[in-house]
Amino acid sequence: MAAAVLLGQMLRQFLEANFRRLSYELNTTQANIYQELTMLQSLQNDVKTMKQSLSELDMIKEAISDIKFIKDVFADTQYIKESQQVFAKKQVDILLQLIQLSYSGALMIGDVHDRVAKKQHCLDLRNLGKNASGLYTIWPLGSFKPGVEVHCDMDIDGGGWTIIQRRGFGSYGTSRQINFNRTWDEYVQGFGNASLDYWFGLENLRGLTKQCPYELLINMTNWEGENRYALYDKFHIGSSLDLYRLFVEAHSGTAEFKLPLTLKICLIEDSFLYHHKKQFSTYDKDNDDNWGEANSNCAETYGGGWWFGDCLRSNLNGVYFQNDGFLRKDKLNGIRWNSWTGMKESLKMTEMKIRPKCGFFSF
């Protein structure tokens, strides 16, 4: 009997001890679970905060994108100010539609409006039935002006030629011709009177020839009344960053040296092809290849802005000399075309004209 009582006491003590141990372990496990649940909830809060931050960041990016878009649309504030409010709103709507449809970036804010009526070059006008040579307004891409007045040749070889340079057609009713010894900025923007003598402008020229292949036709007249031409099947110029470098190839024509063959010393090469890949220079911005004569400036020496090398075989923007044998001969700084009239005789009239080879319409 005593043994049974003792055994019962021992069993009870064993159970109590195990119960206390299990209770302790259970409490510890519950505490750990609670701690992990707290950490998990904290992580969930962090994730939620991050999601909110990402959402806010997306909203900021979207707002920045909207701001940039609005800035691009209204970049040409000068044109918007000059337009009436109702008309400007219609133009913005047209711009928005064009931006959505085209990602080429070729169309600029000042050029996309009313493109059916406003053409980029003379061939556009010719194909709309404008058959008479004369003055027209065109809208080349990148122009400094809302519209550029040019002289269009609608007669030679089917017409559609945009004249980019003109000499010898008078000068505002005076006996002297317009001065072509201009600054770099003037040559970039263009100068003169399209009905008389003028320069189209390098940036205008770049705006046209960067779109598609162009051909170049140069018509020349000497003081004896002879007419010659030079045609180039490939013509364009580089950007302002490349200093409007000239690219011209595939020559044909009649502007060849008029003296006997024995006198064609170093003049067999076409006068304009020599200037291929040369950068444009003016007296105030020397970009020529002339390293002789103490690195002299060809534009300063020979006058006018041109694609000088070392220094020239032609210069249609040189000094204009009147119809006097003494004045127009023996002038190295005149309007020169060495492969026809030699190095010292100045020409009477010149026209440089270009035409696109990429189809009928520019849009």
From TrEMBL:
What domain of life does the UniProt record list for this protein's source?
Eukaryota
Q: Which Gene3D superfamilies match?
A: Gamma Fibrinogen, chain A, domain 1 (3.90.215.10)
The keyword Aminoacyl-tRNA synthetase appears for this protein:
no
Domain Fibrinogen C-terminal: start-end pairs? 113-358
Q: For this UniProt record, give its keywords in alphabetical order, as a comma-separated list.
A: Disulfide bond
KW Disulfide bond (keyword) present:
yes
- Pfam families in UniProt: Fibrinogen_C (PF00147)
Which GO terms of the cellular component aspect does the record hold?
A: extracellular space
Annotated TM spans: none
Q: Which PROSITE patterns match?
A: FIBRINOGEN_C_1, FIBRINOGEN_C_2
What is the protein name for this chain? Angiopoietin-1
Organism of derivation:
Orchesella cincta (Springtail)
